[in-house]
Amino acid sequence: MLPVVAFPFEDFYIDTHHMTHQLEPREQQILFYTGLLAAALGIGGIRAILCPMAAYSLQGYNQHQLLSFFNWFYWLVNLNSTIVFLGIAYIQQSVAKNLGFLIPFTSVLLALIAIHMVRNKLTFKPKKGGSLLTTLGVFLNSLKMCCLHYRHLSGDVGSWLDRAKENNGGRYSETHVENVKVLARLFPLYGLQLLYRACITQIPSGYYIQTMNSNLHLNDFLLPIGAMNVISILPLLLLAPVIECVTTCCLSMEKTPLAPAKVITLGHAFAALSVLVAGLSELQRKAYPLVEQTLSGKVLQVSSMPCFRLAPQYILLGLAEALVTPACTLISFQLTPSHIRGISLHFLTLSYGGGCLLGAFIIQLVYLISGGNFYPNVLHDANLERFFFVLATLMAINTLVSWRISYRYIDLSVQGRGLTTSPLAEKLLRYKACLRFYDTVDRSYTNASIESIL
Questions:
Q1: What is the C-alpha separation between 219 and 311, in angstroms, rounded?
Q2: Contacts of 288 (CB under 8 A, 6+ apart)
Q3: Across all residues in the chain, what is the average pLDDT?
Q4: Is the pLDDT of residue 432 over 70?
Q5: In this predicted model, which residue has the larger pLDDT, 16 or 194?
Q6: Long-range own/partner contacts, residues 162-167 (CB < 8 A, 24 or more apart)
Q7: In DSSP terms, which residues pair with 432 in a beta bridge?
Q8: Burial, 263: exposed, middle or buried (Cβ in 10 Å; 0-12, 13-18, 19+)?
């Protein structure tokens, strides 16, 4: 749909009268937003299953091997992104917009054919009790039991999730509830990724606007705006081999590498510093005189500051991504039982999507509160740097909170230790729950009878 919207109908003649055939603006908008929605659903579905699918064959590996796998996995993902930004972005900006959309369409079509050919080798059946519905059911049943105050049946419990256990009047076995409690330990970690992802979304939003309003000319060559995105990807490509070498050296010298939780805190600090540098760069960019620059056939008044002056903020954000994403994936994978590790990685992906929505919400909120002054339509006439300073302050607070709770995720030797019981033990638990229920009913009936007699 996107190539149809971008097709240059104004230059396309089909009959002898040379009449221009083009889509109406309303039809273009319908196709455009439908295409974006389809792309969002497809990308979300791929990101939700790609890493869990690769992680099914990692059972039994130690922490170093797992971190190595996730480092190289995201290294390959970002290598593909580099090819996309260097190739397709240049074609779309300098050659033809519709061709820039047509290349990904052809690539996805070929990928679908390849996946269909090997679909039997890509089908994995999760273990029993590890479904997302069961996990959500434990949360909902716990909330229901808490709201109904079934204290006369269940008594005091150590955690509100324990109310979903069968021996406390709930619907789920002790195995399921204990495993969900292990998963719930990761929710603070997922929550801290929301604001971090809001900073990452500045690459296609705030940083993109800064780059578009800077001088993109390198001698006589007009750089594509996506070239600056490559600068943020380069640290990811360079840091993965470095981390692998440092970790290997530490293990060979019998030294303990930096804990993944501390690596995440360091990455958050880099993200806060990146947004702060972006605000300072915006002040510097506005000090340069304006020049004319043509982008996609439109003449814009932009700052004469070279776009490479914005490189430090891209590099810092790339360093943050290289540190945070593999470490978060490792903690989510290793601290959960084996049969709900896929669900744990799904929640991590959900936090990434929630962070993107939070970034869009912050942008819209700041735009409305400031009347367009913080996040303007014309960049030279407003104060985008104030928005970056606000976001840097929020991210600094987020980093402090991450540092305060990082001790919870230091020890990964637990290896996702959930509670596992045999079917016979679960039957005994249900039998115990029944006895407890009838014992409670019998006592209440006896007390009522004595009171009526008196």
A1: 18
A2: 303, 304, 305
A3: 77
A4: no
A5: 194
A6: 164/138, 164/139, 165/429, 166/429, 166/430, 166/433, 167/429, 167/430, 167/432, 167/433, 167/436
A7: none
A8: buried
> Is 159 in a helix, a strand, or coil?
coil
- Residue 422 scores a pLDDT above 70: no
Contacts of 202 (CB under 8 A, 6+ apart): 275, 278, 317, 359, 388, 391
For 232-265, what is each residue's pLDDT tens digit? 888 888 888 888 888 888 878 877 778 889 999 9
Token pair for residue 170? Answer: 């709930």
pTM: 0.78
Q: How confident is the model at residue 396 (pLDDT cuts 50, 70, 90)?
A: very high
Radius of gyration from C-alpha coordinates of the chain: 28
Measure the CA–CA gap between 376 and 370, rounded to whole angstroms: 9
Are the C-beta atoms of 225 and 93 separated by less than 8 Å?
yes
Q: Using the Cα atoms of residue 395, residue 397, residue 400 and residue 401 in order, give the sign of their dihedral.
A: negative
Q: Residue 294 in 3-state DSSP?
A: strand
Given pLDDT bands bounded at 50, 70 and 90, which one contains residue 314? Answer: very high
Q: Which of 320, 206, 233, 234 is nearest to 271 (CA)?
A: 320
SS3 content of the chain, % helix, strand, coil (to 5): 75, 5, 20
Tell me how far CA of residue 151 lies from CA of 156, 199, 257, in angstroms: 7, 45, 47
Tell me how far the alpha carbon of residue 261 is from its chain's centroid. 17
**How far is Cα 211 from Cα 214, in angstroms, rounded to an integer?**
5
Q: Give exposure, 220-230, as e/b (b: 16+ Cβ within 10 Å).
A: eebbbbbbbbb
Q: Which of 9-23, 95-109, 430-444 has the lowest mean pLDDT?
A: 430-444
As a whole number of Å, the end-to-end CA separation of the chain is 81
Picking from 146, 134, 152, 284, the residue whose alpha carbon sits closest to that of residue 213 is 284
What pLDDT was estimated at residue 3?
56
Q: Which of 353, 398, 331 is nearest to 182 (CA)?
A: 331
User: What's the number of CA atoms in the CB half-sphere (13 Å) around residue 269?
Assistant: 8
367: helix, coil or strand? helix
